[in-house]
Structure formats: C-alpha cells, structure tokens
Design a protein that fits this description.
Elements (H helix, E strand, L loop, with lengths): L3 E6 L8 E6 L7 E10 L2 H8 L2 H6 L9 E9 L11 E4 L2 E2 L5 H4 L10 E2 L11 E5 L3 E3 L6 H4 L2 H11 L9 E4 L3 H12 L5 E4 L3 H9 L4 E3 L6 H8 L5 E6 L6 H7 L1 E9 L11 H6 L3 E4 L7 H11 L8 E6 L3 H9 L5 E5 L4
C-alpha cells in the first residue's frame, strides 16, 4: 500500500485549500483507518477554506478539514474489537475525553473537552482518514454511500427535532440550508401537523416545498404571523427549530410562539441578539441550545428512521469528483442549493 495520499490541506489563512500529496494517517491500537468514499461540505469547512476570523481562532495549520464522510475500513488497531476490515462506516465528528463528569455519566455529547475531526485534528477531505474506534458508526452494506456521508448533519437535524415531542404539533423552522431541509422530512416522519420554513433564497424555498413543507416563505416578504393565518392556526407555533443563525430569526420566532412553546437553537449567530425576555417569561417559553448529536442515541434514532422510510436524499444537489474540488466549494458557497458531496473515488 502506498504511504502517501491525496488530501485537501489548509496551509495558510490567506489562501485556498491545496490538493497535495501527504503521508497517510497512522493507526494507533484503538484507531481504524478508512478509505474515504464520499465527503459532505459543511458550513464549518467553508469557514476554514476562507480563513476567516473564526478559523484563525479555532484551528492550527496545516490542517486537513472535513468531518462529514463515509468510507470503507481498510486497517484496524490491535485493540479494536467491534469494527472489521471492509465495514462501510461514517464517523461521529466529535471526539471526547471519556473522563469528565458528563462523559463518565454517559452524556458524551456534553463533554467539555470535545475536539472536532477536521477542526482540531486532520479530517476526511482526503483519500484516507484515521478515527478512534469509539467514533465509528457501521452501516448496512446496501446503504447509499452519498447518504451515509451526510449522517453527521442528518444527526444535527434529528437531535434538534427529537428535543421536544412533535406529534400533532405545529413546527416552524428558520433556515432552509441542508439541515433545515432535512428537518422538514424528519418533522413529517415523526408526526408534525403544519411545517413552515423560512429562508431568503428562493431556490432553497422551492426545494423546501418539494421536501414537504406546508409553507416555505421569505421572511423579507411574508411574516410568520401571516403564515399562521394562511394555515388557519389560532394560537401560535408549538415548536421552533432555529437553524439559520441570523440575528432576526429568534426574535421573530418568539413573537410567534404559542404559550408554552418550545424552541431549539442549532444555528450559530455571528452577532448579539436582542430578544423580548418578558414574552419568554410570560408565555412560559423553553429555549434550548443544540450542538452536534447525542452519542450515540441520535445515531440509533436516525438509522431507524432511514430504515423505516425517512428519505432525505433529495437534499443532495450534486456529487462532484474530488479532482473538481474547487467547483464543489464554489457551488456550496453560493448557498443556492442543497448538500454538495465530493466523490473521493474520482481524483
């Protein structure tokens, strides 16, 4: 086996990625080595590629980014017991310490020492990646590898959606990016009544309608209040999933929640947000922050959903060969489509 591989590397903050030859990753006694088949492009990857203020604060160079992936196991460490060579797997993108209070209590998604694959350690924009056995999720052999590559963001959507009971409830989603789009299908799968989603990009709103939203609206032109009237709603939304990070989204949500409404926040704002705390108190609203996935309860849940009919494949807009990685990133950055996947078997 060759000792080098092709990888996208961030070498300096003021430049783009470069596709270069680098040494293949080493495998410790508790690691597995994966031949990468597909990777998804995430907003985090776009931040790293641009070398913006967040990237400069959060990563060390050089770095191979990429945390949404699917691949085939080609090597296992001497102490690996649950993974076999040939397994088709995805990887949980967060590595945890196993020793802090939350890890010891079985709440690994709350680990205070979490590190990100493709952020704090080399990731999957490469022909091979090495991850701990504890981060491996084994798929059935017949899974579509492009779908398997986006189990990480699907997990974000599922974790958010399962935060509160949804059966029979009216749901508003702010942000029709790939996670928001998948959330439409999840909401329908688990029994929501009305589903309204907002975004400012018409192509994404059209995709949202295709994926089953009852209403997909541009908040610059149509208010959530008028959306409620169009649907015959009388008491506000029961559930809200904020997935945009835009500073106007949460105040608009709060204004349109029913008494006792429950809000889950996944989007990361870049500016401070002023909200009506009087309404939060007097309407007895619940607001909860969501980060990543529950390890591994969310993975069991989303796998079960997929096996029982959840189909989010429409969120994948294009699968692009790795040799055309620049086009892949340029397409993802336009924010006019769904998920962009890179095919690492086509270099």
């Amino acid at each position: 086996m060759a000792s080098t591989m092709k990888a996208l590397v961030k070498e300096q903050f003021d430049g783009r990625f470069t596709l270069v030859d680098v040494p293949q990753p080493q495998v410790s006694e508790t690691d597995v080595k994966v031949r990468v088949l597909r990777t998804g492009i995430c907003g985090t990857d776009l931040h790293i590629e641009s070398g913006d203020a967040w990237a400069q604060k959060s990563i060390q160079l050089p770095l191979i980014p990429g945390h949404e992936f699917c691949g085939e196991v080609v090597e296992i460490g001497s102490k690996v017991t649950t993974v076999q060579i040939g397994d088709i797997i995805s990887g949980e993108g967060h590595t945890v310490c196993g020793l802090c209070r939350n890890c010891r209590a079985g709440r690994r998604h709350l680990c205070k020492n979490t590190e990100g694959i493709g952020v704090n350690r080399d990731g999957a924009f490469a022909q091979y990646v090495s991850i701990p056995e504890s981060n491996v999720w084994i798929h059935s052999k017949d899974i579509d590898v492009s779908l398997a590559a986006i189990f990480d963001p699907l997990g974000n959507a599922v974790h958010t959606a399962l935060t509160y009971p949804v059966v029979g409830e009216d749901v508003v989603i702010t942000g029709a990016g790939p996670i928001g789009l998948m959330a439409i299908k999840i909401a329908r799968h688990i029994g929501a009544r009305f589903i309204v989603i907002t975004d400012v990009v018409e192509s994404r709103l059209e995709l949202a309608r295709h994926m089953g939203a009852d209403l997909a609206i541009n908040p610059q032109n149509t208010s959530l209040k008028s959306a409620q009237l169009d649907l015959g709603m009388k008491e506000g939304f029961d559930i809200a999933w904020e997935m945009s990070g835009h500073h106007t989204a949460l105040p608009e949500i709060i204004e349109n929640m029913g008494h006792g409404g429950r809000i889950a926040l996944l989007g990361l704002p870049t500016t401070s947000i002023d909200i009506d705390w009087n309404k939060v108190v007097t309407h007895m609203l619940t607001i909860k922050g969501i980060y990543g996935r529950e390890m591994f309860e969310t993975w069991y849940a989303m796998t079960a959903m997929v096996k029982t009919g959840l189909d989010v494949s429409d969120v994948i807009s294009e699968v692009i060969p790795a040799r055309e990685w620049q086009r892949a990133f340029d397409t993802a950055r336009k924010a006019a489509s769904g998920k962009i996947i890179i095919d690492w078997t086509e270099l």
